[in-house]
Amino acid sequence: MNFLKILKKTVIDSQIYVSAMGTLFAVFFMKEQETFRYPTVLLIFITYFSGYLYTKYQYTKHFLKILALNAVAGIICAFLIIHNHNEIRLLKWFIIVVLGLLYNSFFLDVYIRKIPLLKVFYVGLVWALVNSWLTLPEFSLPIFLVSFFFITALVLPFDIRDMNSDTVQTFPKLIGVQNTKYIAYLLVFVSIIIAIFNLTFIYAAAFFLSGIITYFLIYFSENKRDDAYFSFGIETCSALPFLFLLIMEYF
To answer: Sorted alphabetically, which keywords does the UniProt record give (predicted)?
Structure first.
């Protein structure tokens, strides 16, 4: 039990886990598009990690430390882009960072997280832009749509988890848990269909298998479930396409 608590505190609560899952989701599409590069992987992880730390700790006593850490992370990211890419990639990265700040920042009177029902789509938008725009020479609409619908579906279970504590209107509070699950099922289904018709066979197959697992995890999402179910189980869904790809390539 103590080991699980330590694991949750050091890996999941530290935002390392969600950042790693988001990075592996991007790696899946980078490999499919044959644009995989280690500096880009590091760039994406640092961007996710610093962004989630900022969101979590901006209202705490650790804020100044997090702000300093983010400043260092920004310098590292800029160096990675300038050294390995070009000024266009730097502009793309900067726009995505700004979109992340608009999601939830202490210096804004109204930010995205305060707007009813918009949060799930906005998170899907930012993750989709990373996969379909930041990592590619040209914007890819199919990858954007696959990512957008899939990630939006994965955010909905977190609204189910937080429905008793959220201060803004969310889908579970508005239409109920079961109807929220139906929306998530539909979003996953649409993302699978788009993936099947636009990704190469092995990648489409890996995404299809990931969708099946995701369906089961969404089905068992309930407000009374332990937080680990969501912060570990649901978060892992975004890495499943890459993990299934590794298994299929190995065998």
So the answer is: Membrane, Transmembrane, Transmembrane helix
